[in-house]
Amino acid sequence: MKRIVSFILVVLVTVGVMAYTSPGLLKDIRLGLDLKGGFEILYEAQPLEAGQAVTRESLTQTAKSLEQRANALGTSEPEVTTEGTNRIRLRLAGVTDEVEVRSKMKEPAELTFRSAAEDDEPGTYSKIELRGNEFVENGASVVYNSLNEPMVDIQVKDKEKFAEITKRLQGQPLAIYLDDELLSAPKVGQTLTDGKAQITGSFTREEANELRDTINLGALPLKLTEKYSQSVGASLGQLSLEQTIKAGIIASIFILVFMISMYRIPGVVASFALITHTWLVLAIFYLGDFVLTLPGIAAFILGIGMAVDANIITYERIKEELRSGKSILSAVKSGERISFRTVMDSNITTIIAASVMFWLGTGSVRGFAIVLIIDIVTSILTNVFFSRFLLNLLVKANLIKKPSYFGVKESEIRAL
Amino acid sequence: MRFKWDYDFIKISKYFYTFSIIITLLGILSLAIFGLNYGVDFRSGSNVDITASKSVTKEEIVPVLEEIGLAAEEPQISAGSDRISIRFPSVLNEEKESSLKASFNEKIDPEASFEVNTVDPEMAKELGRNAIYAVLLASLGIMIYVTIRFEWRFAVAAIVALLHDAFVVISIFSIFRLEVDLTFITAVLTIVGFSINDTIVVFDRIRENLRFSKIKTRTDLNEVVNRSISQTMTRSLYTTVTVFIASLFLFLLGGESIRMFSLAMVIGLVFGAYSSIFIASPLWAVLKGKQKPNHNNPSKTTP
Asked: Mind telling me which residue stretches traverse the membrane in this protein (chain A) (predicted)?
């Protein structure tokens, strides 16, 4: 009686949690570009000048600049990641003017020092005095004054030119621009003859570091070439999503009907475990903030097929044990024990294959591999442990009395 | 439902060996002569897929391409009822891409939706190389695992079977000129995973049956293999059928961009089950049969 109660409780709680959370999960799972439309570009970064190398720092800085640009263009949730030693992957969804975004992304940003021209409005500066490539590479550093306020030290290549500029602009602001954005407009205090200067302002430590990085890297430090691009229309993505989900639902119904007709009560338990499995994978996607792509959905649906395998292996084994004349309890026990090894071996080998895919793959292959791995691991939890736990509760509660509940006919049982 | 599978699998396996060898040879031949029909992911170039709201013919598209100077590249155009696919052998730059979209929307169908994939040649080569590494590395990893858990003969037989499956799918894609893209690699790798999964289940049973049997002659060995296959047959059949049907639904109803993936899966699944029974297990029997007799067989001493 106690076991029946705990069985019902476990099922009810599980159903409750799933029913309560599922709508939110389905709404909030991040979809890949192939499912919601958008575009993806893989850039290869090269140094601006020959002979220089692409450093980790410059690559990250470039990625950061790209992200800022994407944000500035008003795209939603731009996703910029670095890949390997010289690649940057950019994913943008919901872009209306793709051409503009693409060209804006690639053009090298320019760092300039400007002064006010005659007809400039107050606070704007249009006369370019110095360009980014006129600074000493890696010559900028953050220093602190006596009040522990951060300042940025810079060095220019041409001392005379800098002396001339600072002399001419004494007491006036020399503004620092990144593209057309004003970063800061410090006033020139005195003529600087040694090619060194300090940029002061009410910076936070972080702002000072950023400014230093920008100057050091000469704005967008790397040249970007498009190596791969994919753009998917929003309605097309929607269509793919609908089609694949429809296929998935039909496939799942088929699998559930198959399991129940072949294995009766254990089949019902397995079906329940499979539904829990599906929910768990979605929950992991939500919690881990993974992006679901089309190949991902495919892997997901196939993973359900593999989860079914774990149940089939176990139940076939239990059936065999029943046919050899064992009691239901001992048939379930030994069937589960013997099949456990097989299930683990076959799952681990598939995990090995998926790990290799993840390790070597890029983009969609990687996405596929992640889903497959998550799928297999959760499948072990739900379709091995959880479904066994439920089945054992039923068996021990003496609710499954006859071998026919497992789909075994009396006539098939060998007498001991 | 219960099936009786008391066949002499080892005996009939020689026909299947022949069958597999023929397919493999055909595959090698086809690959040597025609190669694979590479999609844009590998071949480099641009691939434009258009979903239109109405039926569009090839004749309607050509003038549009001519106008923006893209017809000179002799793109491959396949126009379906509402799905048009244009393949450009060279990379379409941003400007051309957008003018193609604009004039298609203007002249043919304002509601058309586009999917454009562009790959740089260098990148394409790298993707192909990585794919081969992935299959080899996955095989190696699996081989090590199986050798640790079983013995090297099982590992060798399993790897032969999985490479066979992967190659058969590649061959079929080559023979029927089906397009190979990035998702195809994913499919092949999944097939590798499935194939090994299936083989392991059969091997596991062989290993178990070995414990309780005294192997003196080759006939005893064959008998154990046959018995193990017939014991796991129902499971192999059920699992393959379920996953097969799931893939089939994906192939028939799933989105266009995973169609080739699903097709590869459907083919691979059938061969995955087939090779576990008719290639891997008999091959293991052959390898095991060559083992020097009179050795202190550790499998016998295990309780």
From this structure: 294-313, 343-361, 367-391
Burial class (CB in 10 A: 0-12, 13-18, 19+), A311: buried
Q: Chain A to chain B, count of Cβ pairs less than 8 Å apart?
A: 219
Q: What is the DSSP string of A100-165?
A: HHHHHHHSPP-EEEEE--TTPPTT---EEEEEGGGBPTT--EEEE-TT--EEEEEEBS-HHHHHHH
Select the residue of B190, B204, B243 nearest A345 (Cβ to Cβ).
Answer: B204
Question: Contact, B169 vs B188, CB < 8 A?
Answer: yes
Burial class (CB in 10 A: 0-12, 13-18, 19+), B163: middle
For the ranges A184-193, A241-250, A309-318, the maximum mean pLDDT occurs at: A309-318
Beta-carbon contacts of B34 under 8 Å, excluding residues fewer than 6 positions away, are B174, B177
Helix B182-211 vs helix B281-289: crossing angle, to nearest 10: 50
- Label residue A213 by pLDDT band (50, 70, 90): low
As a whole number of angstroms, the distance between CA A274 and CA A307 comes to 7
Write the CB contacts of B65 (distance below 8 Å, at least 6 apart in sequence). B71, B75, B86, B100
Paired tokens of A69: 């640009």
Nearest residue on chain B to A263, alpha-carbon basis = B1
Q: Do B116 and A349 touch (CB under 8 A)?
A: no
Query: What pLDDT shows up at residue A362?
Result: 67
Asked if B254 lies within 8 A of A244 by C-beta distance, the reply is yes
**Which chain B residues touch A228 with a CB distance below 8 Å?**
117-120, 123
Whether the CB-CB separation of B284 and B276 falls below 8 Å is answered with no
Chain B contact set for A304 (CB, 8 A) = 246
Beta-strand relationship, A150-155 and A141-144:
antiparallel
Nearest neighbour of A356 by CB, restricted to B97, B138, B196: B138
Distance CA A263, CA A248 (A): 22
Pairing, β A291-292 against β A30-31: parallel
Tens digit of pLDDT for each residue in A5-28?
888 899 999 999 998 998 888 888
- Its pTM stands at 0.71
Interface contact A243-B253, CB threshold 8 A: yes
A251 and B193 in contact by Cβ < 8 A?
Answer: no
* Residue A20 identity (one-letter amino acid): Y
Question: What is the b/e burial string over B247-280, where b = at least 16 CB atoms within 10 angstroms of the residue's CB?
Answer: bbbbbebbbbbbbbbbbbbbbbbbbbbbbbbbbb
Question: From the CA of B45, how many Å to the nearest CA of chain A?
Answer: 10
Neighbouring residues of A121: CB distance < 8 A, sequence distance ≥ 6: none
How confident is the model at residue A92, as a pLDDT? 82
Residue pair A38/B116 in contact (Cβ under 8 Å)? The answer is no
Q: For the complex shown, is ipTM > 0.85?
A: no
Instruction: Dump pLDDT digits (tens) for A332-358.
Output: 999 999 899 889 988 888 888 888 878
Residues B80 and B11: beta-carbon distance below 8 Å = no
Chain B within 8 Å of A227 (Cβ-Cβ)? yes
In this complex, the residue of A247, A295, A359 whose CB is nearest that of residue B186 is A295
Are B188 and B135 in contact, with CB atoms under 8 Å apart?
Answer: yes
**pLDDT for position B115:** 78
Residues A1, A51: contact at Cβ < 8 Å? no
Model pLDDT, residue B302: 42
For chain A, what is the mean pLDDT?
81
Given a cut of 70, the residues of chain B with pLDDT beneath it are 1-5, 40-41, 43, 71-74, 79-81, 121, 124, 292-303
Probe site for chain A from B253, B260, B270 (most A CB atoms < 10 A): B253
Q: Which of A123-127, A210-214, B28-32 shows the lowest per-residue confidence on average (mean pLDDT)? A: A210-214
Rounded distance between C-alpha atoms, residue A243 and residue A34, angstroms: 13
